[in-house]
Amino acid sequence: MCLIVFAYKYHPDYKLILTANRDEFFPRPTRAMQFWAEQPELLAGQDLEQGGTWLGMNRNGRFSALTNHRNGRIKAQGKQSRGFLALDFINSNLSCTDFIKATELPAYDGFNQLIDDGHSLYYLSNRSEQPAQIQPGIHGLSNALLNTPWPKSDSRKSALKQVIDSGEINAEQLIQLMENKDQYPDHLLPDTGISQDWERKLSSSFIQMENYGTRATTVILQKYDGQTEILEQNYDHSGAIERKRFMLQLPASSA
User: Fold this and answer.
1) Residues of the chain with pLDDT under 50
2) Structural domain of residue 65, as residue ranges?
3) What secondary structure letter does DSSP report for 248?
């Protein structure tokens, strides 16, 4: 993923309200979100080039999502594919804190990860000094650290709050929320060590370039009783293509 905005224990009915865009080169082979034949309890998309995922969930309620941490001033580091971080967590029985202790952070290039073991939600990154347990509220994660005030993150957080506070929440609204293509003035853009032209093009929530752009928007609506709706809209260079919807009954969570 490249942009995730989510409300955690902010709404009286929903433990997690999340909407996220995955940005990637269009030629990179991808399998859309589905239950994996080789792991039938796992619901996730798959990067067919490396084999990992950017967002996934298990029927037992374990969840993880990833974004890259962007820094064009340093060479790529680490030999392990970041997509396996999400798989490793979802497929394990480790608590969030034990997984964090067991993860070899230097083995990966810069990443941000959300992990939920069914009891608590944590954020970890190998570009942050320490992991953090997510507190109730509305949060944003792009290609910098959690809640870094990038324009598109702040814009979509505000839009998510408006949707939630309106009292009418549905997955379609949250797909549309992430379709914003506004680019921001140069003085508001982050300086991540890439060209100013690329900073502009990557500043929009929804990216649409010739060879690179938003490949999927994924929505998760998870109630405290475990009833969960997941909607994924996929895209190619020409626009929207297949859409997939899943209804899961996960273990209940305490408010």
Assistant:
1) none
2) 3-249
3) E
